[in-house]
Amino acid sequence: MNQEAVRNAADDLDAHVRDVIAWHFSPETGTPFWLDWAESAGWDPRSEVRGFSDLVRFGHFEDEWLRGGPARRWVPKALAERPIYTFETGGTTGIPKTRTNIEDFRLDYERFSETLPDAHFPKGANWLMLGPSGPRRLRLAVEHLCQHRGGICFCVDLDPRWVIKLIKRGAMDELKLYQDHVIDQAMTILSAGHDIRCMFTTPKLLDAIANRLESEGSSIHDAGITGIFCGGTEMTAQWARFACEELLGPDVYMAACYGNTLMGLARAKTLTADDGFKITYYAPQPRAVLEVVDPDATSDVVDFGATGRVMLTTLTKEFFLPRFLERDEAEREPPCDDFPWPGVSGVRPFGKAAGGTTVGVY
Amino acid sequence: MLHFPVLRWGEPYQSLDVERVHHFETGEPIAEVSQANGGLVQRDLRKLARARDALRAIPSAELLAMCAKAADLFLDGDLPLGDATQSADDFVRCQSATTGLPEHMARMNMHKLHHVLTNLDAILASLMRGLDLDILARGHGMERGVPRSYQATTPALGIVLPSNSPGVHGLWLPVIPLQVGLVMKPGSSEPWTPWRMAQAMFAAGVPKEAIAIYPGAHDAGGTIMNHVPRSLIFGSTQTVNQYRANPAIRVHGPGFSKILLGDDVVDDWERYLDVMVDSVLVNGGRGCINCSGIWASRHTREIAEAIAARVGPVAPKRHDDRDAALAAFTTPGQAAAVNADIDAALEEAGVEDVTAPHRDGDRLVAKERCDYLRPTVVHCESPDAAIASKEYMFPFTAVVACPQARMIDAIGETLVGTAITADDAWIRALLDAPHIDRLNIGPIPTTKLDWMQPHEGNIVEFLYRARAYQSAPLQ
């Protein structure tokens, strides 16, 4: 590992933190929520935050702050005249969390696009977005990724909030019918002569569509798909191996990602049998940072290889989210050549928080 | 360390996702168990039909002979386990180590399964009322001059198995000679029996593509339940309620098995004390057929005291002690939760734990890596007491005072009902009670099963449906 690259990445991160803090806490450009926060906190982050490690002074971002309006309090003054999107997360019951967006979803996915191998995700290829629709960042982001690469994106309707309700009331027959309904839509698109070559999907939906294709005498490969972009905490090394060996075959590439509305998306190292299909994610630093911390002392990052709770910091000019404790745990991984900053592996629902979370939704 | 692979229609598959099972007393890792992901199970289930095709290529009589041979191999043979070989003694030690069941009980269960396997011909003859097995194989035939036709409802039976009681495996053993495949998800701490039984069957000639075993999380079990046309699941009352209305799923939940003493015999209750004690205590009190309620119109306090005097002194012993009568709770916190539930129920007026004076110490015995609950007899002055309808996974019974005239209505769901009586009118009413599954009339322990009779439904009727069939020669 090139230690100079690691040092440079850390320096870049510190400089980026100073820029983002200056932006969000400036009376001219700043974000109303953070300007109010600084006033009540009684200190000026612009003069006291010199680098990433100083963000500990913010404590932990509370996701409750994102529930309810006014949404404009999250829009920096300098961007107030731009067209604004809102993306939601949660919301099966009660008020969902809202993140405002202007360009972030496009920037995140354009950067992600640079990591996709053109041989498997050809420029100009059309995509199938087989994932959640509605007020979610993912749906527009994947469509933009496809457009950015010169293709047209075909989408399905999938309402994960309804799926969660079905799971919670144990309506497994209805759940199966709904999954069939989603797969029916995907099969229709794949059969309609749209020359789909690439697909976003989740582990459960990839299982389902691969099974459907095979039951009809085809396969992911035979359907013309050459690249799969797949995300979700359900993705384990065993599932990745199963998918690569049995659902996709050697000619279909799978790019694994860990992402959410608050972060953007973290790219996984290429999955290989030699590495035991280990899934190690690297955040899109410096725009977002993933740390693995001691759950009982969240200022302490755990050693490489050790387990801890995932903590996210998002640092863009549209959104500042310091030290948010995710509902996931993971192992901390060392930097690598492609990503000279620490990563995370084995991401799964956090033990102490998992009781309130319904996972494996789509 | 031993490794349990996933068994994909007979072919071992080592998963990247493994769970360790540990010795309940020492904490020593006993084995690593490969975990199947739901997608893998779903993919394999596309080969369900192949399982039945492979079995239909073998006459039922030959499959019965293979099962008899498998019985002996299961009981005494050295059989493959991952890359190693497992003797019968190894099996007993390992099963005890991970389930908390004393070794002598594990061996007793082996003999029970051996008995079922070696008597499958008679068991099936009984369950099928003497119908020729070949009629099931062919799909039609003549029986006493009458045309009969049966259609398999599924090419394989899905089973989501529990961890707590190896005795339940007797329920699925008749499936293979019925030419129906098996898809099993074993309990997390009891992968031993399904694996060893499958290996014994393979060694006896049963085709490998007839049996699949998928250790794993809920995802694996859910996939089996959702994708195999007929499934058995073992679980709690909540599980029972969830699947009660689903004809494709047969649920085996708590038994709430009971002994009812008729007014005609209750004054002689001491004659039946052994039956009552055995029904409560056998097999560590873990099974759904263990007695969780003893109901009588009078003498209930004396009955409770007498049972308590017999079972109260029973204390935990080492797993390899031949006199060990209690099984350990190996799930952290489970015994404490049960203990707290009982203590809360004892707050109710008219409810009393009569075991306490016969026990040196608390009901809950906490060890370093496991817990025990010592036998508990509760006296209830009324059938309306909440604890009168409870069942726990240790020797527990409520002795309930209830007039005979009210008893049948008040007992609720009852897997095994032993009614000690000679009162013909009451026996007729008991025979008509739809909420009693297995009915014993007379002093028969609830734990004494007659395998020649159906248990929570007839497995043959679950796997085959009778239908009309006619044929005529072409003109």
Protein model, in words:
The complex is a heterodimer of chains A (362) and B (475). Chain A is globular. Chain A has 362 residues and is of the alpha/beta class. Chain A has helices spanning 3-24, 32-41, 45-48, 104-113, 137-148, 160-168, 172-190, 203-215, 237-248; strands at residues 85-89, 97-101, 126-130, 153-155, 196-201, 227-231, 253-260, 264-268, 280-282, 288-294, 297-301, 307-315, 320-333, 343-349. Chain A has one domain (3-356): 3-Layer(aba) Sandwich (Rossmann fold), CATH 3.40.50. Helix content of chain A is 31%, strand content 24%. By secondary structure, chain B is of the alpha/beta class. Chain B folds into two domains: 2-250, Aldehyde Dehydrogenase, Chain A, domain 1 (3-Layer(aba) Sandwich); 257-441, 3-Layer(aba) Sandwich (Aldehyde Dehydrogenase, Chain A, domain 2). Chain B contains 16 helices and 24 strands. Chain B is globular and about 75 Å long. The interface between A and B is medium-sized, with 23 and 16 residues.
